[in-house]
Amino acid sequence: MQYLPNILFAILLIVGIGFFTKNVRKLFRNIKLGKSIDRSDHSKLRWVNMINIALGQSKMVRRPVSGFLHIIVYVGFIVINIEVLEIIIDGLLGTHRVFSFLGGFYGLLISAFEILALLVLIAVIVFWLRRMVLRIPRFWNKEMKGFPKNDALYILYFEMVLMSLFLIMNATDTHFQQANSGNIISQFISPLLANTNAETLHIIERSAWWLHIAGILVFLNYLYYSKHLHILLAFPNTYFANLDVKGKLNNLQSVTDEVKMMLDPNIDPFAAPTETENDKIPEKFGAEDIFDLNWVQLLNAYTCTECGRCTSVCPANITGKELSPRAIMMKTRDRIEEVGKNIDKNGHFIADGKVLTDTITSEEIWACTSCNACVEECPVNIDPLSIIIDMRRFQVMEKSAAPQELNTMMTNIENNGAPWQYNQLDRLNWKDEK
Amino acid sequence: MNVPTMAEMMAQGKQPEILFWVGCAGSFDDRAKKITKAFVKILNKADVNFAVLGTEESCSGDPAKRSGNEFLFQMQAISNIEVMNAYEIKKVVTACPHCFNTLKNEYPQLGGDFEVMHHTQFLKSLLDEGRITIQGGAYKGKRITFHDPCYLGRANEVYEAPRELIQKLEVELVEMKRCKSNGLCCGAGGAQMFKDSEKGNKDINIERTEEALEVKPDIIATGCPFCNTMMTDGIKNKEEEQNIKVLDIVELIVNAQDL
What percent of chain B is modeled with pLDDT above 70? Predict the structure, then answer.
């Protein structure tokens, strides 16, 4: 029976990590639903970007207050996880504070963890206040109702509880307190429990220990269902992000082939199509559903943590238009998830009569000025604009559903080489005008 | 005003240093034509050997591409590239950030490899080479704010060239709250220039004009014909047109020195 806690712990760990692995595989599968795009170039530059932007949080500090608080939580998260390693070894082997043989250095480590835990706790409370008391507008846009709003709060509560458990665990560990090394914060909590008997203290300590590790495993598994997935995906997302200048849109190769053919004076307009041409299903232009987006765009959607910085700088959104770049990413992710569940159920995707353009409306995509403010602002290099442009391409080239004034503009370009109805032969008239 | 065309140059067996890509706004829009002429005045004054395509120029395709009409964009791009390659053009300068962005970034893959510069970059290079001088004249001491065009700024990270030119005028350059990489769009990009805006509670150019008014400028400087239109409309809407002028940087330079 003495091994019961070890066995229980091992089971908890296996279930927790096993379930997480299952979801990670699902995540990979879903991201691969996107079209291929080559992002294997410039690996050195990509590493630099990832180190600066994801690891170094360089774009977070564009907003100093939330950026600074976020760095605390981020550093806390990474550093305190070293403690999790000890917890896992202790849990599996039945040891207690297995790293304590490190002596003074162990004390130093735990001190650092405790200080960070307190700072994280404070930062998370400030985050909550910003959201719920200061009610910063970007947390209250209309897409932030229901689950997205609660999701953010759950994460904050989770972090508050985990940090508190960590400090309580240390404060109620009598040996640890007696050793008086590393209890830099918890020494101020333990006097509050001075009148508690040793047995109760031990129970509290054990409960905090178990709840802490169980909480971490639950949190790990919550990630997949949450906006909080960014803590993992920020890294690949910044690595695979677009490296071109923001103004450059991709040129569709399928269109180039056709345009070149149209402009080629030697082409035989009556030529019979070759066998292979006949067999090939013509590629759809632009994006109607998630399958028409590339995998980086889908990765973008999973990476989005709904901070809303993009939406808060979007000129369309600022002036009350329907468009919100964050909502574009959220709706894309929702649709990927819907398709994913369809695959889970049927083994493969069975058409469900729904598409991404059902939820991302044309009113939204036509309100975009393509100004790139959202792309510039995103702390993890998500590109909502690329999705908007792909959806416009679908609207125009597959559906001929551009707004009427744009059709006029395009007709003018076709007929007279300018978006307005002026004769191309008058292009140089300005020279002689007074 | 001396404005040679590529065809004329070729007939004389000459190759200009630069092609001045005028753009549709610069060719047809009454307000933008003034910017075109101002730029030509500087080119003439500096004795820059340039030419225009004239009637052989056609829309760069930017508004078509940003509207999602990739076919029309590539038709325009490939035809333009054919014309430019036939004249063996190496260097292009334009006063329109939309043409600038498209020619610079989206033409190369279609066979159009040119060195493309925005007119503010080109003037900056002339200044550095000592081919032009800019001094404070009529605008000395005035408060000027510069509105960053998205397709010059965020899209291509050109923030300094226009500001350096403005500062040469010995003016007081004041920055709006949202400037440079945080600059707010005027509302015309992405083909919005050619359509009514979607339902909302404000027009984007009004939002941007209000922001410009906050810094109490005498002049709002721009580097884009579309931004110019949007800001001019905004100023009219606020009934400030008697107090505040919206001018392109080349107009500032020309007016300052009475070219």
Answer: 100
What does chain B come to in residues?
A: 259
- Domains of chain B by range and CATH? 6-127 (3.40.50.1860), 133-256 (3.40.50)
User: Which among A315, A406, A418 has the least Cβ separation from residue B67?
Assistant: A406
**Is A315's CB within 8 Å of B187's CB?**
yes
A276, A404: one domain: yes
**What's the whole-number mean pLDDT along residues A163-190?**
92
Domain's final residue, options A218, A240, A262: A240
How much is the mean pLDDT over chain A?
94
Range of weakest confidence among A224-238, A273-287, B87-101:
A273-287
Of B24, B57, B185, the CB nearest to A371: B185
Domain shared by A126 and A17, yes or no: yes
Do A341 and A206 sit in the same domain of this protein? no
Cross-chain CB nearest to B64 (options A247, A413, A431):
A413
Phi, psi (degrees; rounded to nearest 5) at A60: -65, -40
User: A321 with A257, same domain?
Assistant: yes
Residue A49 in domain: no
Residues A261 and A284 in one domain: yes
CB contact under 8 A, A427 and B28: yes
Dump pLDDT digits (tens) for B93-103. Answer: 999 999 999 99
Contacting residues of A for B44, CB less than 8 Å apart: none
Minimum Cα–Cα distance from B79: chain A residue: A263
A16 Cα distance to chain centroid: 22
pTM value is 0.95
CB A35 within 8 A of CB A294: yes
Q: Are A221 and A310 within one domain?
A: no
Tell me which residue range forms the domain holding A131. 4-31+63-240
Mean local confidence (pLDDT), A240-250: 97
Residue A309 has pLDDT above 90, yes or no: yes
Domain co-membership, A130 together with A277: no
Q: Which of A189, A208, A240 is the last residue of a domain?
A: A240
User: Residue for token digits 């299903």?
Assistant: A281
Residue in chain B closest to A62 (alpha carbons) equals: B182
Instruction: Report chain B residues whose CB lies below 8 A from the CB of A410.
Output: 63-64, 67, 69, 72
If one counts the domains in chain A, the total is 2
